[in-house]
Structures are given as C-alpha cells and as structure tokens.
Amino acid sequence: MSIDTTTVKKIARLARLDIEEARAEAMSAELSTIMGFVEQLQAVDVTGVEPLLSVSQATLPRRADVVTDGNYVDAILKNAPDKKQGFFVVPKVVG
Amino acid sequence: MTNLTTLTLTEAAAGIATKKFSSVEITQAHLDAIEQHNPALNAYITVAAEQALSAAAEADKTSSEGRLLHGLPLGIKDLFCTKDIRTTAASKILENYVPQYESTVTQNLLNHGAIFLGKLNLDEFAMGSANITSAYGVVKSPLKATGDTELCRVPGGSSGGSAAALAANLCLAATGTDTGGSIRQPAAFCGIVGIKPTYGRCSRWGIVAFASSLDQAGPMTKTVADAALMLEAMAGFDAKDSTSARHAVPNFRAAVGQSVKGLKIGIPKEYRPDGLSPEIAATWDKGIQQLKDAGAEIVNISLPHTQYALACYYIIAPAEASSNLARYDGVRYGVRVDNGGTLDDMYCATRAQGFGAEVQRRILIGTYVLSAGYYDAYYLRAQKVRALIARDFAEAFQKVDAILTPTAPSDAFKLGEKQDDPITMYLNDVFTVPASLAGVPAMSVPAGLSAQGLPLGLQVIGRMFDEETVLKVGAVLEGKI
Q: Most CB atoms within 10 A, among A49, B23, B421, B465?
C-alpha cells in the first residue's frame, strides 16, 4: 500500500497539520513503509469475529444527570493562550 | 548514615516509620543526586525542589499511620497532570502548560503521603521506544556496556526518564505509563522492575491520553516488593474514568514471597522466533529452570495470533492517538502559533510547529486508517484481529496461571541506532504489545546480563486482575538468575 504525496497532503489537511512539499515527500515514503507493514493483517481470517473495541468488560456506568462539578472559570482559563472577559479568544471567524 | 538514595522503597518506608531518618533528609538526598547526575542523563524535565522539600517538612510533622508511602520521594512521568507543576508530555505544544488539577493516580500517591521530586522525561506523548522523541532532549541510560567509554545507551521508552532516574538512584520509585510496552521495555533496558497492571486497574483520569483503549499507568521500582507496595497505593476504582474497574485493590504486598509451587507457567512457542538472540533465549531458559526449581509446572502453549499483534497495534494506537490529539489546537491551553490568518490556519500552524516528527507521523497514520473508504479495511479489521489476540490469551489462561516470555528482543542499543525507518524502532515492542492489546497485566523483571554487560528482562503475564500471581512469579525470578 503506497501513500502518494497527494494523499499525504489530503490527510494532513484532515488532521489540521501544515506540511511542506519536501516533508510531504519524505512522509509519503515513511507512511508507505508503515502501511506496507500493517498489510499483513489482510492475511488473517476474521470471518465471524466481532471487533474488540475495549477490553474493559463492564458496561459503561450511568449516573444521575445532575451537575456535580464546575464553577471554576479562572482555573479553566488559566492556561489559555488568549482570553477576554471569561472567554477563550480565537482569530476572527466571521467577517 | 547509609546512603539514602540506594534504599529500596520498602526499606525507606520502614526507615521513615521508625524515624531512622526524616522525609526532609531522604528528599534532600535525592535532590542532591538529581543536581549532580541529571545534567548528564536528562531524566527529569522539571525538578520541583521547593514543593518537594516543603511537602517533606509537612510529612515529618504528621504520622505515617495508614499511609503506604509516607514521606517517600518519587519521580512522576511528565504525562500525569500535577497541580501547579508544569506538565509537558515531552511536547513543545505543552511547554507552558501548568495543570490546575491533579491526576487520580498522583492524587492517590499524595494521599498515601508520597513526595514528588519532579517530572520525568519521556518520548513525546509517550510515542517511542528509546526516549529520543522528547522535545526536551534525549534521555541517556546511566548504564554502560563493556567497552562503552561514555554514556551512549538509550534507556528505552517511552518511560525512559523513569527507568533512567531509578537506575541512577534519582528517585525511590517512579510512575510510568504503558500503551504497548512503555513501562516494561525501559524497565528491561535499565535493569529495574516495571508492571503494567490490568487495563482499568489504575485510573486514566488526568493522564495525557495517547491511545485510550490501551493506556495504563503502573509503578517502576527497584524491586518486585516495591512494585507491589506502590501499585497498592496507585490503584483503585475512579468514577472519573469510565473504564476504571470496580475491583477492590488486594493486598499486593502479601503476594510477594509466596510459593509458586504447583503453579502452571505457560511458555508460548511464538515468542521464540528463528531470529531470537541466543542470549535472550538463554536468559529465558534460565528463568524457566528457576521456576521449575521453585516447584512450578512448565507448560508449552501457543498464542497463534502473536505475529499479527504489532501490525494490529500500529493501526489501533495511531487511530486513537489521532483522535485524542485533536484537542491540541492552540485554543484552550498550550502553545498557539498565530500567523495572522484564519482560525483554521492557526490550528494547522500550531499543530505543525507544536508536534514533533514521530507524533505527526502517527497522527497521519491514524487519520488515514480512520478516513472514509479505509476504515473497514484497516481499523475495523485491526479490532477483529485484536479480538483474536485477546482470545488467544483467554484460552491460554484456561490451561496456565501465568506466562513467561522475554521482555524485549535485545539489550539497550546505542543512541542513534535503529532509526533507519519507523518499523525497526517499532519492533522493540514485539513481545510487549500482545499483552497490551489483550488488557492483561504484565511485568518486566531484571533477569540477567547480556554478553556486553547490560540488563535483560523477562516478562511475566497474568490473567485479568491477577497481578498477585504476576508479582508472586516475578519475585521468584528476581535477583536469582
């Protein structure tokens, strides 16, 4: 399975990663090596096998739908790169 | 006074309880050792000397009653969020991140009276097997092979800082995390003990996530008895982690020293491939003999899907990582790179500059195998193969009580080696990944030295939630081979 540079750029876009042309070429070779390695899984007979999503056997626990936490805006904003009046600030989204 | 940094955790606990020395004394001794040796090893990213000494002074004023780790200085892998102590995950993207909350595991340790010396280096976001992908520099193992003129060996990874710090006596014990071998392989390389508990045994809350269905925290220690002690303090149900197990925490310490007479130990033939290094095979054989001598029954078993485990892992782990790491977008915490463009431009620039090469590689692989048209062929298929691997272990554990294998396919290699392509590095985890996929507990115990004088580890794998048998078997192997 080879992954060409066009595909690398497409998935980099999906993953929100800027990638330079030269890097895309190197990455194409690296990713192709990895995908070539995992290709061996195609040889396993998985007919009738249910996928294993998690090894934890317990069903997900439930709790009452009530507020149990909160009221610490300052702690949440503490590490924000940019903040104003209790909000996170991001580059302008609408013109 | 004895050198306080060479004590085991268990010895140090007794020393503090009987007031042979104070927490301040043993904490200061470790801080001195860090100051002296850390510049060469780079095992710590952040040293929290002031907080440690003030916590130690507090500990000296209170009783050790009911606290397993009262006044004992530990190192914490820099993947655990620690309140008011910078937590980087060894990534540039978190270089300025100071958590406002404490992870459950570290809170459990604090509740047991532990003192945190600082935050230990690791591979970036725990992705690596040699501790060479950290944005804060490589970690060097304190151990030298015959003929090495300087420190040049990798400590293993991803918990490389934890393993190196322990081997150099820069902490009494350390936390690690293990997704595909990140506790066990560095433990083997540095000649220490490391246990990956059963998935769900230790809460994942507050640990920077890599691959959530695999990540598990565990202790890295000088002895098996220390591992039992520390695991008891770390483990337990936590409502804040939906995959945390509602199992009571047993008295793990009681398992250490118990007889293995009559226990059935499985030896899986798939872990002895044609190319297995003769010295690894010989160490394994000695371990088998040791258990036989102690009265255990050796049973040859088969785990038929072992050969597919690594490929399965390198789909599932990157897939989960690509999803988990989507949160680093420069908005709520961490580094932001704003080039004056749109919000989307900010995301793309932040992530491209914030993440290192290996992390980007895994995000891209994960994004690819989860993308439309490839999901069924790769991700879904890998989850089915994972089911087969888990079934292999379940069937084996109907016949045996524990499984013994080598931990890693080689001893510690030199910095710069095995970097030709990603797969060569990934192969380090060939013996550790299967137990991770199955969720079963597994421990690496120092089991001998290679021809060039470096430690080799053996891995003991147990049934789900049966760390006690793992500890019992490990204690028999420890220091006897």
A: B23
The domain A5-42: what is its CATH number? Answer: 1.10.20
Residue B466 within any structural domain of the chain: no
Shortest Cα distance, chain A CAs vs residue B164, angstroms: 29
Instruction: Residue B187: give the domain boundaries.
Output: 4-255
Single-letter amino acid code for the residue at B113: G
Catalytic residue among B141, B159, B182, B203: B182
* B21 in a structural domain: yes
ipTM of the complex: 0.95
Tens of pLDDT, residue by residue over B206-223, are: 999 999 999 999 999 999
Q: Helices marked H in B303-380 — which ranges?
A: 309-324, 343-354, 357-370
- Please give the backbone phi and psi of residue A50, each rounded to the nearest 5 degrees, phi first: -80, 135
- B347 contacts in A (CB within 8 Å)? 16
> Cα distance from A35 to chain B (closest Cα, Å)?
8
Reported as type and span, the H/E element at residue A11 is helix A5-14
Average pLDDT, chain B: 96
Sheet with B442-449, side-by-side order of all strands: B44-47, B115-120, B73-77, B174-178, B216-221, B193-196, B442-449, B455-462, B402-406, B264-268, B297-301
List chain B residues with CB under 8 Å of A38: 311, 314-315, 378, 382
The pLDDT tens digits for A24-75 are 999 999 999 999 999 999 999 999 999 998 888 667 778 899 998 899 999 9
Chain A nearest-CA residue for B380: A51
Q: Give the CATH number, domain containing residue B23.
A: 3.90.1300.10
Check residue B93 and give its pLDDT. Answer: 98
Q: Answer yes or no: B203 catalytic.
A: no
Give A3's contacts (C-beta < 8 A, 6+ positions apart): A28, A31, A32, A35, B368
